[in-house]
Automatic annotation (TrEMBL):
<keyword id="KW-0808">Transferase</keyword>
<dbReference type="InterPro" id="IPR013216">
    <property type="entry name" value="Methyltransf_11"/>
</dbReference>
<dbReference type="InterPro" id="IPR029063">
    <property type="entry name" value="SAM-dependent_MTases_sf"/>
</dbReference>
<dbReference type="GO" id="GO:0008757">
    <property type="term" value="F:S-adenosylmethionine-dependent methyltransferase activity"/>
</dbReference>
<comment type="similarity">
    <text>Belongs to the methyltransferase superfamily.</text>
</comment>
<feature type="domain" description="Methyltransferase type 11">
    <location>
        <begin position="50"/>
        <end position="142"/>
    </location>
</feature>
<keyword id="KW-0489">Methyltransferase</keyword>
<dbReference type="GO" id="GO:0032259">
    <property type="term" value="P:methylation"/>
</dbReference>
<dbReference type="Pfam" id="PF08241">
    <property type="entry name" value="Methyltransf_11"/>
</dbReference>
<dbReference type="InterPro" id="IPR051052">
    <property type="entry name" value="Diverse_substrate_MTase"/>
</dbReference>
<protein>
    <submittedName>
        <fullName>Class I SAM-dependent methyltransferase</fullName>
    </submittedName>
</protein>
Length: 252
């Protein structure tokens, strides 16, 4: 990779407390943990990295499956929050961007990147870096904000239009900075093709957060929602049903 940083990834340092985002999102967090546990069940890894892992909410889970875990996060304020959450653990916390990873070639055998792709309209550099630092045969789990979820497929069908193959912006707030953080949804088939070009071969996928709805969360206990989520993730994966798709990949 060029030493010149191509993308700015420090927007979460700009007076934004991402930990507050997870207030009242216990279901979404649980759904993501369910997916990772399912995709890693029975496996053990030597070295793992949680790429763009924020304040480390999933890093603790990775430590159950890997002997060494690094939280790789570009935001200084996120790392400050992670220091509190991960205090007393042996999880390393290092400031770095996904397009400029501070690992040696083939150093890792497990990588997760969750809730990062919706900030990456053009993820080729990030995919290349993941492939570089992952050993041949290593595993990557990449979560993708899904353009083709159930509601969108109905919308585009009603409009008589095909599902876009390129990322689509879902930003609702006006852009107030020249390098304001992107918010996009991706076509899953397009992303799988990009990953394959980088040397990362799809081996499994799950549809995640299938019950993401403020109305459902208002009336259904979280235990009911997570039970349904466990049952639904694999059957709905083939239809790319949910708003979040978890891709399990193998480094060729």
């Amino acid at each position: 990779m060029s030493e010149k940083r191509k993308k700015v990834a420090d927007q979460y340092d700009r007076d934004y407390d991402y930990t507050k985002y997870w207030d009242n999102r216990d279901y979404e967090h649980a759904a993501e943990e369910i997916a990772i546990r399912r995709l890693l069940d029975g496996q053990r890894f030597a070295a793992a990295a949680d790429i763009g892992g924020g304040f480390g909410r999933l890093s603790l889970l990775l430590r159950e499956y890997a002997d060494r875990v690094t939280l790789a996060e570009p935001s200084r304020t996120q790392l400050e929050a992670a220091a509190k959450l991960l205090e007393g653990t042996d999880i390393a916390q290092v400031q770095m961007q996904a397009d400029d990873l501070k690992f040696e070639d083939g150093e890792l055998d497990l990588i997760t990147m969750v809730r990062v792709m919706h900030h990456l309209p053009a993820p080729a550099d990030e995919f290349a870096e993941i492939a570089r630092v992952l050993r041949p045969g290593g595993t990557a789990i990449i979560e993708v904000a899904n353009l083709g979820h159930f509601k969108n497929r109905r919308k585009y069908k009603k409009l008589g239009q095909p599902l876009p193959t390129e990322p689509v912006s879902i930003r609702t707030a006006p852009v107030d900075e020249p390098d304001a953080i992107a918010f996009v949804n991706h076509n899953i088939d397009t992303v799988v093709g990009q990953l394959s070009e980088a040397g990362l071969q799809l081996s499994d996928k799950l549809s995640v957060s299938n019950l993401r709805s403020q109305t459902l969360k208002k009336y259904l206990p979280i235990g009911v929602m997570t039970t349904v989520e466990k049952l639904a993730q694999r059957p709905l994966a083939g239809r790319d049903f949910g708003p979040s798709i978890f891709l399990k990949l193998r480094r060729r």
